[in-house]
Write a structure and sequence with these properties.
The protein starts with 7 loop residues before the first helix and ends in an 8-residue tail after the last helix. The longest helix is centred in the N-terminal third of the chain and has 20 residues. The chain has 9 helices and 7 strands. The protein has 3 domains: about 70 residues, no CATH class; about 120 residues, 3-Layer(aba) Sandwich (Rossmann fold); about 40 residues, no CATH class. The strands form 2 sheets. It has a 5-stranded parallel beta sheet, sandwiched between helices. A two-stranded antiparallel sheet has the order 1-2. The chain is α/β, with parallel strands linked by helices. α4 packs parallel to α9. The chain is elongated. Helix content is about 45%, strand content about 10%.
C-alpha cells in the first residue's frame, strides 16, 4: 500500500526543531551580513510565517522551478531569498502607486484568504473581492457600476425611510434585492472606476479576474505558490498562498508599502 503524501499543513504541525533550524540556516546563509554571522531577520520572519512551504513536486508548475530551494518530506520548499527579492519589487511598485494616488483592488476568495482580504479592505476602506468574482467587473465595468449605483441608491432610500411608503411585501422584495446585491458585490461599492492594479492571493484560483486584468492590460501583484503559472501576474511573489500566517505577512507588507506611498509627497503632475 503506497505511503500517503504528506501535505504542507501536516509538515507545519510536526515538532521538528532541529531540522527546522537547519533549513532556516541554509535559507538564510546568503542573506547574512559579512562578518555578522547573524541570520537575516527578514528571512527569519518569512520562515516563521510559513511563507516557504510549497506543495508536492507533482503539483509544481514547470515555470516555478527557479523559485524552489529544496525538497523536504515530499514538500517543496521555496527559496526565501528569491521571495524577498520579488516581494521588494512588488512593494516598490505599490509604493509608487500610492504616491500617484492610484486605486488598487484586493482579490482572494479561497477560504484561507477571504477573511484577510475582507478584513484589510474594510479596515482601510479599499475595494475588495473576497467572494466569487463577478464576471465582467473589469471588462464590462460600466454595466457593473450601474448595478453598484443601484445598490447604493436602494440602501440610501431605505436609510432615509423613503421605502416605507411601499407595502410590507414590496419592502420585503427591496430588502431581498439589497441582500442579493450585497452578497454579490460586497466590497466593491467604493470602486468608482476601473482599478489601476490588483493584488491577487492565488491567481491560479482567480482565473476569470486574472484573464480580465490581462485583457485590459491592468498590472497585478500575485501571492502564488508553486502550482501557479508565474506569467499570470505582473509582479509575482512566490509564497505559501494557503496558510493564513503567510498570506497575512505578505499582505501586510504590500499594504504598508502602498500606504507609505499615500503618505509621501506625490510626484509633480499626479494630483
Amino acid at each position: 500500500m503506497p505511503k500517503p503524501e504528506l501535505k504542507a499543513d501536516d509538515l507545519e504541525k510536526k515538532d521538528e526543531k532541529p531540522q527546522e533550524n537547519a533549513v532556516l540556516s541554509n535559507i538564510s546563509v546568503s542573506a547574512e551580513k559579512p562578518g555578522s554571522g547573524a541570520a537575516d531577520s527578514e528571512i527569519e520572519a518569512m520562515f516563521r510565517a510559513g511563507v516557504h512551504f510549497g506543495y508536492s513536486r507533482s503539483r509544481r508548475h514547470p515555470k516555478m522551478k527557479p523559485y524552489i530551494f529544496s525538497l523536504k518530506n515530499n514538500v517543496e520548499i521555496l527559496d526565501l531569498e528569491k521571495t524577498r527579492q520579488k516581494l521588494r519589487e512588488a512593494e516598490d511598485f505599490l509604493r509608487k502607486l500610492g504616491q500617484e494616488r492610484k486605486k488598487i483592488l484586493l482579490v482572494g476568495a479561497k477560504p484561507s484568504a477571504a477573511f484577510l482580504i475582507e478584513k484589510v479592505g474594510r479596515e482601510l476602506g479599499m475595494p475588495y473581492s473576497a467572494k466569487r468574482w463577478p464576471g465582467g467587473l473589469l471588462t464590462n465595468f460600466n454595466v457593473i457600476r450601474k448595478r453598484l449605483d443601484y445598490l447604493e441608491d436602494l440602501k440610501a432610500k431605505k436609510s432615509s425611510g423613503e421605502l416605507a411608503k411601499y407595502t410590507k411585501k414590496e419592502q420585503l422584495v427591496f430588502d431581498e434585492e439589497i441582500n442579493r446585491l450585497e452578497e454579490k458585490f460586497a466590497g466593491l461599492v467604493s470602486l468608482k472606476k476601473e482599478p489601476d492594479a490588483l493584488i491577487f492571493v492565488d491567481p491560479g484560483e482567480e482565473k476569470t479576474a486574472v484573464r480580465e486584468a490581462r485583457q485590459l492590460g491592468i498590472a497585478s501583484v500575485g501571492i502564488a505558490n508553486i502550482d501557479c503559472d508565474p506569467n499570470l501576474v505582473t509582479y509575482l511573489i512566490p509564497a505559501n498562498d494557503s496558510a493564513q500566517s503567510s498570506i497575512k505577512y505578505i499582505l501586510e507588507r504590500l499594504i504598508k508599502a502602498y500606504e507609505d506611498g499615500l503618505q509621501s509627497i506625490p510626484p509633480a503632475g499626479t494630483e
